[in-house]
Each structure stands twice: as C-alpha cells, then as structure tokens.
Amino acid sequence: MQINPQLIEKIKESLFSVLPITAIVLLLSVTIAPLAPGVIVLFSFGAFLLIIGIGIFTLGVDLSMTPMGQGIGASLGKAKGMALPILLCFVLGALITVAEPDLQVLAEQVPAVPNMTLILTVAVGVGIFLVIALLRVRLQIPLSFLLVGFYAVVFILSHFVPEIFIPAAFDSGGVTTGPITVPFIMALGVGIASMRSDKNATSDSFGLVALCSIGPILSVMILGICYTPDSAEYSSVSLVDVATTRDAALVFLRAVPRYAEEVAVAVIPICLMFLMFQLVTRRFKRVQLLRISSGLIYTYLGLVLFLTGVNVGFMPAGQLIGATVASGGQPWLLIPIGMVMGYFVVAAEPAVHVLNKQVEEVSMGSISRRAMRRGLSIGVAVSVGIAMLRVLTGISIMWFLIPGYVFALALTFFVPQIFTGVAFDSGGVASGPMTATFMLPFAMGACQALGGNFMTDAFGLVAMVAMTPLVTIQLLGLAGRVRKKLENDALRAELARAEDSILYYDA
Question: Which of 302, 324, 440, 446 sits CB 3.0–4.6 Å from 33 for a disulfide?
Fold first, then answer.
C-alpha cells in the first residue's frame, strides 16, 4: 500500500513546525528545568501525535476547505440578491469557527467562561464579520477605513470591559484565524472577488481574515460586560504519573473517545451545510465531491489526533516547564527563553513559508522571502519577550496593544492596499498551532508559579504574536515602495543625462 505523497509532505512540514519546541523542551529538561521521566514520555507521545495530527489535518483542509470556500465564494459572487449570501456567510463563518482547533485549545485554558460559551460567542463574532467582509468586497469599500473604524470601537469598548476579559478577547481574535478558518475564508474571498473584473478585484480578495479576526475580540468583550463568571481560578493541569511507555500509550488511548466526540460535534454541521449547498447548486462534480469527502475524513482524523496530543501531553508539559523556570530562582530567564522559542517557532511554521512566498509574488520580488522570514522571526521574538515581561511585572497589555495597533493602522494609509490586506490577514499565520498549544501554557505556568493573575498577565501572548505581521509586512511593503520610487527616480535622472549628451547635427 502506497502512502499518499501529499500526506508525507504535510507530515514533514508539521515535523519542522513541532521539532524546534520539542528540542528546546528537551534541552531545558536537562539544564535549568529538570523534569520527571514520566513527563518527558507523555510530552514525547503528545509531540508525536501533534506532528501526525497536524499533517493529516492540513492535508484534509487543502482537499476540502479550500475548494469548498472557492466554490461557495464563486456562487455567492454571482448571486443577484444579498439576503441569501448574507445568511450563508454568517452560518458558514460560525460553523467553521466552531471546528477551529486553536480556538478549542484556548477555550480549555480560559476558566472564567465555559468552553462552549466562549466558542459559540467567538463563532457568532466571526459570522457577523464575515458578512461585513462580504459586503466590503461587493460594495468595494476600502479596507483601511473599516479597520480603523472597527479597531477604534474595540479600544473604546475596552474601557467598559472587566480587565480579566481583555487579554482573552484579543487572544481569541488571534486563535480564530487558524489552520481551518484561514484557508476557507481566504478561498471564499478569492471566489467572491473572481466574479469581479475591475482592477481592484485581486486586492479586495485579501482582508476577509483581517475583518473576521475583529469579530471575536468584540464579541468576547461584550460577553465580558454581560457575563459574570462564578470563578476565574485556574486549576493547573496535572500530568498523569506513568511508569512505562505502555502506561503512557493507554493514557492517550483513553482520551481519544472524548476528543473524537467533540470533533464530530464540530465537523458534522459543516458537512451537513456543504451537503445542502451541493443539493441546491450542483456546483461540484463527482470527482470533486469524492476529493472533498476524503478531505473531510482527513480533517476529522487529524483534528482528533491533534487535540488528544495537545491536551494530554503537550500543553501540560508547557505549563510545567514555565512553572519550573519561573520558580528556579532566576525568573528573568523567562524573557530570553521565550524570545528564543518565539524566533524558532515562527520560522518553522509551514503557513509562514506560504505567506513569505505570497508576499514575494505580490511585491514582484522587491520583498524577498529571506527578508520576510527574518522580519517575522525577529518581530515574534520581541513580541514573546514582551509577553514574558508582562508575566514578570503585570504591566497591562493595553500599553503595548494600543501603540502597536495605532502604528499598524496609520501605516495602512501609506502602503499599497494589497499589503494592508496581506498584513492583517497574516496575524493568525504567525500565531500558529505552537503558540496556543505551548507558548500560552508556558506563560500560564510561569504566571501561576510567580503568584500573578494569569487572566490579565499570561493571556494576551497570542495577541502580541498576532500583532507582529501587521507592522512587519506593512513596513516591508513601505520599504519596497520607497525602494522602487528611488530606483525609478534614478532611472529618470539617468535618462535625462543621456538625453542631454546627445549631439544633434543639421543635415
């Protein structure tokens, strides 16, 4: 039996994504943060399931969510009325969000709100803003105007929201734009824009993810105003004590049915919605349907393995490592360790490589992949360092988010619109699976060990990482624009000198 070569390639990509964190954890475990052998065994099993799960899951998304998004987007673009497209966008946005693995991981870590309450709140926010994104493409509204307006509402509303909800609200915006939501929504945007023939159609296909990431922030803030939690105490996740590798395997096997059920509840509504769409439109042919169906199976299996590996072995180990480093007598080490993790994590993210290629193509080579990779790595390293500083000092996240977003939004008026769309779409790319599954638990474990308020001090890490591309990509786009202008000015000057040197003779 021959293994699908695409699956092998996806597993290789996920291996390079998970490997840096795994290597750093193993290095820390034999130096400044010694761990029990049982912890290392569970972490290793979790890392293995994470690698396989992400590989299978991303292949499934490529086979199912991307063509579904493009097909549905093209149908919505041709629709004459607006009522049906609006309804479909809202329902699809909500259903896709419920199935987002990064959101499910975040919900597990927010004790102030029940998991499903938080997930449904975020789903409603995404659904509403996907409708707004559709209207923007149809009505050709400049993206920068909407971003400035809605983020102004976000920061004004933040003054009326309980402090414990603000970091979690911004984190929800970062995790929502994850590996299942982004491909679908971006493909939906391409499908909608393909029905237009004007010169701005390509630029307007970007920006859907950017707007959809605002929805969760606003919806969780509104939830914070309306909802009074019974308790916001965090109970540390404890790793099961295992004596043998067989015991470790049994721990994971016992957890599989729970996550299989949770994933089924999330994925089945998407399948039913797609089935209804196909029955009404007859959009996809038999071969395409078989491909999408196999992709949905891959998505389901990969998501089950991913969540099992994360929740049983990977995330608890991250908390323990963070707590061990923080309580080791030199808590300031959290900053350089976090920065090193951030640098290598983003560099290894498969989605980042796709983004780098996309920016290079959009800029016609003026911004190289190497420059993008280096810029994002340094930016994320700084963001994680600031997040660790917040864990140590308790500085409010608003002291960093407000200047960061003001600067990013100001840049939207000076860079080409397409770079604005790509930059704001890419927030979730930088904050990939490793951020929610390891970096955030690492910060929470450290915060708990230091006796801080993890709801205000640890949460917000994902938001800091997600903010990095907003600034980095636009600055690179601005630099590319300035460089191109200088080259054109130099060329015109050279042509003028050449013209002055021409000698004219009378016949």
Answer: 324
Structure tokens at 230: 């019974």
Interhelix angle 181-193/115-139, nearest 10 degrees: 20
pLDDT at residue number 223: 93
Residue 231 has pLDDT above 60, yes or no: no
Q: Work out how many domains the chain is built from and give that number.
A: 1
CB atoms within 10 A of CB 140: 11
Both tokens assigned to 272: 């039913």
Residue among 444, 461, 465 at smallest CA distance from 111 = 444
Q: Which residue has the tokens 């029990």?
A: 36
- Rounded Cα gap, residues 56 and 8, in angstroms: 9
Q: For residue 423, which amino acid is it?
A: A
SS3 content of the chain, % helix, strand, coil (to 5): 80, 0, 20
Answer yes or no: are the C-beta atoms of 56 and 300 closer than 8 Å. no
CB within 8 Å of 355: residues ≥ 6 apart:
372, 422, 426, 429, 469
Q: In the prediction, which pLDDT does 204 show?
A: 65
Question: Please, what is the average pLDDT of the chain?
Answer: 84
CB neighbours (10 Å) of residue 445? 29
Angstrom distance (rounded) from CA 258 to CA 304: 9
Rounded-to-integer distance, Cα 367 and Cα 374, Å: 12
Q: What are the Cα distances from residue 230, in Å, to 112, 114, 246?
A: 7, 10, 39
User: What's the domain range around 465?
Assistant: 23-490
Give the count of alpha carbons within 13 A of 419, CB side only: 25
In a domain, 457, yes or no: yes
Neighbouring CB atoms inside 10 A of 496's CB total: 10
Give the residue with greater pLDDT, 306 vs 426.
306
pTM of this prediction? 0.84
The structure tokens 């803030």 sit at: 221
Residue 461 lies in a domain: yes
C-alpha distances out from residue 40 to 53, 235, 237, Å: 19, 21, 15
What confidence tens digit (pLDDT) does each residue in 385-438 have? 999 999 999 999 999 999 999 999 999 888 887 778 778 877 766 777 778 888
The single-letter DSSP state of residue 158 is: G
What would the pLDDT profile of 178-194 be if each residue is shown by its tens digit?
A: 777 877 887 787 777 76
Give the pLDDT band (50/70/90) at residue 100: confident
Q: Is pLDDT at 495 greater than 70 in this prediction?
A: yes
Q: Treating both helix axes as pointing N-terminal to C-terminal, what angle do 143-157 and 115-139 enclose, rounded to 10 degrees?
A: 150
**Does some domain include residue 7?**
no
- Whether 135 and 214 have beta carbons less than 8 Å apart is answered as no
17 belongs to a structural domain: no
In whole angstroms, what is the distance from residue 344 CA to residue 304 CA?
26
